[in-house]
User: Which sequence fits this backbone?
């Protein structure tokens, strides 16, 4: 069975979008650690995966549609987003470090359950107050898509969005394989320590980038 040249090129564009998105999203970051923790708790995992996947789809589509160029042309907006994101990440990091020292939230059974609404608000903050998300999904993906023929950009975007859903689903539902490890209080303390340090480190790097911009 022969495949048309267009079909071959379409598959190549899909794979390119998938690979680039996967490379950007798999790095340790705020969203991934949040999904991992919710997966370990088994709390609203499907909703979080769906929300983050749809959010990435929205932002990737926006980047390919030219919003990335707009954000790059308005540095003041980027600065505001950066400072807001830094404040949120600092708050979440301090919360994780405080939780690490708590004697109650140290096991799956003992961790405090949160409502779906609260989890969604936190997930939205990790997404839309995180400048790195805009850098990856809007600016970088938008730039990469611009190198594709116009007719193939939707295929490239579909590949990128598919990678987001696959990764978040793997991380969220795969976390349950680690649940036997997290029956030990020390494992939760280590996880919260890592979360706190990473969040505070990201917050500091955002503040440095915001106040060290030229002009």
Assistant:
């Amino acid at each position: 069975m022969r495949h048309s040249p267009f079909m071959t090129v379409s598959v190549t564009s899909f794979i390119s979008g998938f690979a680039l998105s996967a490379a950007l999203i798999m790095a340790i970051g705020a969203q991934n650690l949040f999904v991992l923790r919710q997966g370990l708790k088994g709390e609203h995992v499907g909703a979080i995966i769906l929300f983050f996947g749809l959010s990435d789809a929205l932002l990737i589509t926006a980047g390919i549609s030219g919003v990335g160029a707009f954000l790059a042309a308005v540095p003041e907006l980027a600065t505001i987003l950066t400072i807001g994101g830094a404040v949120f990440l600092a708050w979440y990091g301090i919360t994780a470090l405080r939780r690490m020292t708590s004697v109650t939230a140290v096991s799956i059974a003992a961790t405090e359950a949160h409502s779906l609404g609260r989890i969604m608000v936190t997930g939205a903050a990790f997404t839309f107050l995180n400048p790195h998300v805009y850098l990856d999904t809007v600016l970088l993906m938008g730039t990469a898509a611009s190198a594709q023929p116009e007719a193939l950009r939707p295929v490239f975007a579909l590949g990128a969005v598919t990678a987001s859903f696959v990764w978040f689903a793997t991380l969220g539902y795969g976390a349950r394989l680690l649940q036997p490890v997290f029956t030990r209080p020390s494992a939760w303390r280590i996880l919260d320590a890592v979360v706190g340090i990473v969040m505070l480190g990201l917050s500091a790097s955002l503040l440095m980038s915001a106040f060290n911009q030229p002009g």
